[in-house]
Amino acid sequence: MTRASRLQQVEDCLRRTPAHSLPEAVDEVLRRCLPAVSAVRLLLADYHLNVLVPLDGQDQAGPVRMAGTLVGRAFVSRTPTLNPIAGVNAAPDECEVSVPITARGERLGVLAVTVGGRQPEAFLPDLIEIAEITGCALKVAWNHTDRYERVRRLRRLTLAAEIQWQLLPGHGCAGEEFSLAGHLEPAYSIGGDNFDWSTERDHLALTVTNGSGAGIQAALLTSLAVGALRNARRSGADVAEQAALSSDLVYARYRGAEFTETLVLRVNLADGVVSAVDAGSPRILLMRGATMIPIELEHQMPLGMFADTRYQIQQFKIEAGDRLIIVSDGLYTAPTASGGAFGTTALERVARQSRMLDAAEVPLAVIAELMEHLGGQDLADDAVALCLDWKQSATDSSSPAHPAETQKSSEARG
To answer: What domains can you pick out in the chain, each with its CATH number?
Structure first.
């Protein structure tokens, strides 16, 4: 059987398999296509991205920690790892090959396959492709069954967290021009913070929302704001119109008693020009080489604070090699054990320390730094961290990194 026919057989098998049975189908088709395979495990990352959890019925050993394990290293580094198997029950020359499962740049878990033979690396090309096929199949199947959602939660989510996680687009995505990742804490009891993105042919849309209040009321408020932003965005509105339409809807519901602080961005893929509306508190830090540049935008009214609020667009430019780190107010102003707030100094320090990490690891590094500063205390507010690595070369590098002239949005309503 040729490599192309093996991959086609895997793809055909997963396409025909019911959504809830993908792990068993992967096991069956791998054993059939690769006779050297003796065991297959499919592990998914939990909400905290601290451990990898095996699918029910596949492994009785329980979750595997990301840190300090070869399986975890495959997930973190997006690079396959080889782990020779030793022990009285192990066959000669057995090795577990761990391959990251990804879908369009988002890390979902790890495919761990036990193979026999003296050259386990010979299976890597096939297993890398099969893991990617599996990742795409999982993303399609995810909304058709609760099996995968159940696996990745180590304890029960609050209802507010359930609502909020369903709003999120995922943990990351990537394209030729960028790599993007976000993380939200506390994972199991979040209230109103949110991030959202959408990739298009010519631009990348991003929002970071710092909701007010706590619990189910905060989750419902954020759901309304994010839904309104998406509705306006999908209708073709620019970032100022998106903010205005969302603000009007939030105000109509809460009459100013509740509001959301939101950052709305649109990144032009051709030249790296970022159009922004800063309706509140999320902060942006630009890392260009060894230079840290806080992006200072004009703070405009939060969404829903007043009726008929109009917003103005500001612009700045990012260049190839730039990194943007965006954090919510719950992270930036979090009080630390030693007094004061997390603030710019700590954010710049962790940005420097994590400059060699993949974009997917940066939000986790920022959250970890925050938790260390808290000295073991629980978060008093939600914390969002988002990282954007920009790869595309700008057509004109003469524009400044700081916001340029403010542009008035059109009066048209989408």
So the answer is: 3-150 (3.30.450.40), 157-408 (3.60.40.10)
